[in-house]
Each structure stands twice: as C-alpha cells, then as structure tokens.
Amino acid sequence: MRTDTLQRRLAAILAADVVGYSRLMSADEVGTLANLKAHRRALIDPTVAGHHGRIVKTTGDGALVEFASVVDAVGCAVAIQRGMFGRNLGVADDKRIVFRIGINVGDIIIDGDDIFGDGVNIAARLEALCEPGGICISRAANDQIRDKLTLAFADLGEHTMKNISRAIGIFGLTSKDIEALPELEIAQMPADETIGVAREPEGAMEQDIHFCMTRDGVQLAYARMGSGPPLVKTGNWMTHLEFDLESPIWRHLYRGLSRDHTLIRYDARGNGLSDRNVEEVSFDTFVSDLESVVDAAGLERFDLFGISQGCAVSIAYAARHPERVSRLALLGGFVLGSARRARSEAEKEQVAAMVTLVRHGWGHENPAFRQMFTSQFIPGGSKEQVDWFNELQQISTSPEDAARNLIANGETDVSDLLAKVTAPTLVMHASNDARVPFDQGRRLAAGIPNARFVPLASRNHLILEDEPAFPRFLQELRAFLAS
What we know:
The protein is of the alpha/beta class. The chain is 39% helix and 21% strand.
C-alpha cells in the first residue's frame, strides 16, 4: 500500500553521467566543477528546456531528466552530445568532460518532485552500459521513435541488468555515429506523439486523472474525459490510463465513447497507474474497486460498460446496485472464466500452463511470450497494432500482477447473478472471438432478463478501429445508450 502522495505515470527518462568523474575531480576539483557549471548553463539546461524536459535531480556527475515524449528525450540527448563535441574542441583529452546518456520509456512513481521505479532504474543502467559520448536506449524507446526519426540505432542485443527482473533490449549510437550525423532536422515533437496528456493536439482527447483509495487500502487511478451523461467503463487487466490514449488498441474506443458522454474509466488493481504488487486480487475485490471508483467520482446513477472480464464485474455491480445502473452494455464477456470452463485434463493443464508462462515469460524484453496473448486478443491486428499490444502488456502490468489477474479472472462465475440484473442490457460478442468463446456471449444474453444480443463479424476479442465491426459496434452502443 502506498501513501496518498505517490502517483504513477508513463514517461521517457534520460539519465546522464560524466565519464571518469572521480579522475577529473582528483586532478582538478575546482576546474572540473566550474566547467560542469558552464556546460549546464550554456548547453544542458537550455537544451532540456527546449525539448520540454524537466530536470528531476542532479548529482555531482550526472542528471536525471523526465520527458513526456520519447522523441524529445532522444532529440535532447543528441543535441547535448553534439554540443559537447564543439565545447571540447581545443580541450586536452585528460580534461574533457564527456557524458554517457541512457534513455528508457516506462512507468514511473512520482513522490513530490522526485521519481522512482523500474522506468528510472533501467535508464540509469543503460547509461552505465553506454560508451563515452554515446547514447543507449531501451527497446521500448526504440520502438516508439523508429518511425518518427531518421536516426538508426544499432541493435546491441538483450542484457541482464542489476536489480532488474527481466533482460532489456538495448540500442545504441556511438560518439562517432553522432558526430557523423548531418545537421539534424529533429523538429519539435508532434503533440500527438506525447506519452502523456501534457501537450495534446487540437481536438485531441483530454482527461483529468484522479486517485482514490479502496476499502483494503489499494490506490486506484481513474480518469474523466468528454462531456454529457456519465458512462463508466469497468476496469480490466492490461490498461494504462495514459498509454491507452495514444494506443491504436484503445484510443478509437475512448474517442467514440467520450464524444457524447462523460467517460469514467480506471486502471484495475495491479495495472497501469493504480497500485502494483497487490496481494489481494479476486473477483470480489474487482467489484469492490468499481464501487470505490464510482463513489469517488461522485456518481449517483450512470450507464455501465464492461469489456472482457469487466463484463462479469459489471454484472455483479448491476445486481448489487440496481438503483445506480441505468443501462448495462457488455462486449466480449463470459459467464465462466477459463479455469471454470475447463473440463478435460488437457484443458486444465492449458490453463495452468498459461499462468506459468505469464509468470516466467511476461517480463522478457523479447515479446515472443506476450505474442501468444496478442494473437488471442487481436489475431487480425496490423503490425503496428500487434507491436503496440505487445508493448502494452509489459507497460501495463508486471508478470506477477498479470498472473494474479489471470488466476482471478479464470475463477469467475456469474451464473447465479445474471437473473438478478434489472437494467436494460446490450450484449455484443465477436462471432469468431479467439479469446472468449462466442457461446459465452450467448449465455450472458440468455441469462440476463430481456437482454439484446448483437453478434459482431470479427475474430478480434478487442474490436479494432479499421475493421467493419467497429462502426457497427459503435452504432449499436450509441443507439442503446441514447434509448
């Protein structure tokens, strides 16, 4: 459990360090400090500010900088290293101040003005592995800049880092690579490429992020966006309030839902900006968390929308609180979780193997393990969508949190709750859903009194923007919520 001052967000982190700082200080302490201050004043501070960065802290020989954009972070790093080439001209080799720079993009913990977490630690480890005058970035950072900048970082393979549970893919530019670059045309970062919501393009989605505490002391992050009647999207695993707004997996859905409604959505426990490493993860806590969010948001009566395992949570809430749910919409849901559906020994072994695979394979930098889940959730996805979903899995939750969620969802059984739902209900399900059998959607609709069932012509568990099923889904949902 964390205190109220702790928050999370997705960020690009730059860690810089002076090569041979102890040697320089031993040889000329006063001169080294004076030179460092001059470099900061003339080059580093203005370059960070020009690329929209925030210097979180400085040490005697280094700095930690936070950016809302990976492109800004990389542009800043290149500008600093190129600037140092010029500032070191005419300086004796043994007196030159040379930096190593590491950059990572990931989830960070904010405590006042300071930041912590693996997102920060990995950036520091990358810096330590970097050659003098060069730049090393993580695979996550490289994936985000590769189609936006003409810089070609060399693939240096995967490395095991101290106190980091998974191997990290590293990409690098040497000092010679940077020096040989033509005058870079790294324009200011396009606003729609920001990680978070600090600088969004005209007409882009805006959200207010808040935090609330559950009954068992878990801090949940929830966001409010759009305007109109309230619509609550129940939390499900593999979400990240900030990352999802730029993701081709979720952004089209949230854009569509917030056009006519005030959309409230939240990261479930163990996911996104909500508390991680939560021991108590169960169906009952999922329902209780939804209760905490809607109470914190000050909602008395609202429409409720669930996706995948969020459907069962929504059903339980609607059955418990019929006076608060105006309408209930469900997509890709199930009556029984995967463990409850398993009948044969082979099926039970497959469920157990999934949990083992998540625990031991989820955190690897190589997405091969996570690709199995991607192929179930979006088998019809484009390369861009597949890459985003692979990255979303790693950013949104840890291997242990993912395993806890998978176990809790597998044990779900709402058979006895269906008949207790009194709200008008719309159930939609992809006809060839590769993750949750189509029959589970039919069973939901059959068990909820007067529910309407709409099959969607898709094999994707998460309906994608560029497939014909999405406008059909949005049309049906809007008509239902307006009824």
